[in-house]
Design goal:
By secondary structure, this protein is an alpha/beta fold. The chain contains ten helices and 13 strands. Strands 1, 2, 3, 4, 5, 7, 9, 10, 11, 12 and 13 form an eleven-stranded mixed sheet that branches. A two-stranded antiparallel ribbon has the order 6-8. A hairpin with a 4-residue loop joins strand 10 (about 220-230) and strand 11. Helix 3 (about 75-85) packs parallel to helix 4 and helix 4 crosses helix 5 (about 135-145). The protein binds 2-acetamido-2-deoxy-beta-D-glucopyranose (2 copies).
Length: about 325
Amino acid sequence: MRIGFYTFAILLLFVTFVVAMGSEEILDQRPVIGILAGPTMKPYIPKGSCGLPASYVKWTEASGARVVPVPYNLAKNELLFILHRVNGVLLPGGPGKPQIKPDTDYMATVRYILDFALESNRVGRPFALHATCLGFEALSVIISDDNNVLFETDAANMTSRLIDVNMAKSKMLSDPWLQEKYTQHDIAPNYHHYGVRPHVFETGPWKDYMLVATEKDLSGNTFVAVFEHKSFPIFATQFHPEKPAFEWGPVYSATSHQMIAVEAGQRLANNLVSYSRTSLNRFESPELLRQLLIYNYNPLFTYLDTYHFEQTYFFNNSNWIAKL
Ligand SMILES: *[C@@H]1O[C@H](CO)[C@@H](O)[C@H](O)[C@H]1NC(C)=O
Ligand SMILES: *[C@@H]1O[C@H](CO)[C@@H](O)[C@H](O)[C@H]1NC(C)=O
């Protein structure tokens, strides 16, 4: 009896030690984030079929991750190849209204990435996902399985503050500094025509997700500003945490560039990259990773063009496929 107890206690201590050491060791201190490159707007199609504003790349890199672009029109086996190797994915903003049934290539890819993230986390392989603006709207339509989840908002050029709903329970916004800054200061930049009403969280398809914060548009409509998965590192912001530090164009002139706006945005990138460090995914060789990194491409200065972003990367998925 006695010996059994001590043996058990020592074993428990040993197991605790191994688990603690293990979790320290498996943190990936060289995380890689895939960023979805969406369809290019018409005047830019000759430059590449996919585009990616550089602000999302810089936002991610500044938190200590490297970036692999993920063209929205990759074949599924190529997409899966990337998803098995990156530590997480960022779904950036962009033009358009996400619609399902039939899915466009863009929506099919977002759906595939969400399903991958859910399944990976379900089987104990952490996989981080952050969606912003168009990415947020696409996730919302897919989660609801309903195009009508989106309503027209009056928030195409607006910076405002968040209204706390469940920040204390949130993984992303549990930091009291972030809560104070985002609820007391107008530092959340919004550039969207569509939004999601908070009541969706009372419906079945959203049972695994938590409403974290809302905002009001210029006509007083309340829309969802932040949601996240209740158990997994899956986060979505309707507003743009990357813009305060990296976008200066006239179309984005409502953006606050105050230090607190910049820092709040950085902390949201830290959240994505911190969770991505818990992923077990790895590239099998530095050479393979090197071939896929964003550093293989040069962004264009698109500030005064119809693209509006300070700098934009362009890709053709055909360039990509040859590399795999
Ligand atoms: C994409 O393809 C077009 C047409 O072949 C070409 O002009 C353009 O330079 C390519 N873009 C990139 C980024 O390679
Ligand atoms: C956007 O909002 C800013 C500040 O509120 C304003 O100066 C600017 O003219 C607006 N831009 C557009 C395109 O509406």
